Amino acid sequence: MSLDPRVLEALKGRHRGAVLTPEDAGYDDARQIWNARFDKRPGAIARCDGVADVIAAVDVARAHDLLLAIRSGGHDYAGNSMCDGGLVIDLSGLTGIRIDPARRQARVEPGVRLGAFDREAQAFGLAIPGGTVSTVGVAGLALGGGSGYLSRKYGLAADNLISADVVTAGGEFLVAGAEENSDLLWGLRGGGGNLGVVTSFEFRLHPVGPEILTAQIFYRLDDSPRVLRAYRDFMLGAPDALQCYAFFLRVPPIPDFPEELHGEVVLDLVVTWADALEEGEQVIAPLRQIVEPALEIVAPQPYVTAQQAFDAGVPAGMRWISRANSFEALSDPVLDTAVDRVADMRGPFTMAYFSPEGGGAIGRAAPDATAYGAREAPFVFHVLAGWADSGEDAEVIGWVDDVHEAMAAHRVDSLYVNILGDGEEERVQSAYGRNYRRLAELKKKYDPGNLFRVNHNVKPAA
Ligand SMILES: Cc1cc2nc3c(=O)[nH]c(=O)nc-3n(C[C@H](O)[C@H](O)[C@H](O)COP(=O)(O)OP(=O)(O)OC[C@H]3O[C@@H](n4cnc5c(N)ncnc54)[C@H](O)[C@@H]3O)c2cc1C
Question: What pTM was estimated for this model as a whole?
């Protein structure tokens, strides 16, 4: 696993930030990522202090044919921000954020997490449409797509990427924007880390909040077939400012929930309304009246707080598995299969949910407007489970895979690549759909040797 000492010397000679090897005190901390199931041991971790460090690390990796991983927020479900042996370009220390309120734009470095970005942008009443968990890295999120509470209104994070600074596989520094290297910008907007190392992002921001209306409406599992049908019909005509995830969970035995629900599997409609608060109550009313809810929590909240509401449910450092399928429509068999399969779900840290990933502003953009390949598959069913003990791997992964397989009977091929799990590399091409060919051509232009391959990999065109 160790790097050749001469290679290490060559890297250290050009690198300003720390280069950590297994002998160094900080090495074990530096190789931790969100998903503890991937306990990888790189030969070295290059903690980059700036663009020059990134260029140096890319040059050394290319010259010595090293396996190379890129780490920003470290939240890849499949553990692709670390590698065994080889070199990791660690961008987590680059955390600068500059908001330009007058132009409604932001400059963000790749180590920034969503929560920090939200906080800075909300100081000016602005936000980027992004994810629903504040610990996730902006870099991986936006490069793969990036969808959350605001995406039906303002599109994906990737749709709001105006330009990016990129170090290519050749060690060349390029700016990808509308005027220069626009093909590269197209590929960065959904193509993941395939085309280069992004060292700075420029985003368009939108007015949001500071408060949005939030609701969690819990229904009993027995009622969920009816609730889900109403949810499906409601979402077809829902205004863009509304987002709603249909989330199955087993209720934990904590005082936030009435005792009669403890241990029960329930369906939680997680609703947000990012527009005039008074109007929101009326808009969400039909979702509260499908049948008698088992519990409701409806309240305006600061957008920043809403963005953190689910952080505790997906902590870093557990073992995690992610599996997901996309659907063109929530047909009765799709809904009934889900209800049937979640009935025996485990306790805390196991979740399964329908997520609108292609509707509203996302779906109105042309399918080939950016590299993101899943605009025509408006709903995703995502199964995610976390556990602590490796002895339970087979049981938990087996359950998740069973649910996933049952749902797969109804799926379409295109899928948001950021929710692909490990062992799903054969799905990458079909996940990108018609955009794969163009991405493969870009890969051939910007990374013909596939230096950047520890990711949901697009192969260079032949
Ligand atoms: C708990 C949790 C919640 C999530 N919620 C959402 C959500 O609500 N919405 C959503 O859209 N997604 C969500 N995701 C998925 C998330 O978008 C991806 O996992 C994303 O890739 C994480 O980015 P990161 O920077 O943290 O990850 P990393 O693991 O650091 O990177 C992910 C991938 O991107 C590449 N990469 C990272 N930085 C760069 C860079 N600067 N240049 C080039 N390539 C780079 C890496 O090589 C790796 O392949 C969630 C994930 C988790 C674990």
Answer: 0.97
Q: Are residues 342 and 217 in the same domain?
A: yes
Statement to judge: residues 353 and 393 lie in one domain: yes
How far does residue 140's CA lie from ligand 1's centre (Å)? 3
Tally of structural domains, the chain:
3
Same domain, 220 and 204: no
210 φψ region: left (φ > 0), alpha (ψ -120 to 50), beta (else):
alpha
Binned average pLDDT, 10 residues per bin, the chain of 462 residues: 92 97 96 98 98 98 97 98 98 98 98 98 97 97 97 97 98 98 98 98 97 97 98 94 97 93 97 96 96 96 96 96 95 97 93 90 96 92 97 97 95 93 94 97 98 98 94
- CATH number of domain containing 60: 3.30.43.10
Residue 385 belongs to some domain of the structure: yes
Ligand 1 contact via 192 beta carbon (within 6 Å): yes
Atom 35, ligand 1: which residue's CA is nearest? 193
Q: Which range of residues forms the domain containing residue 201?
A: 97-208+435-446
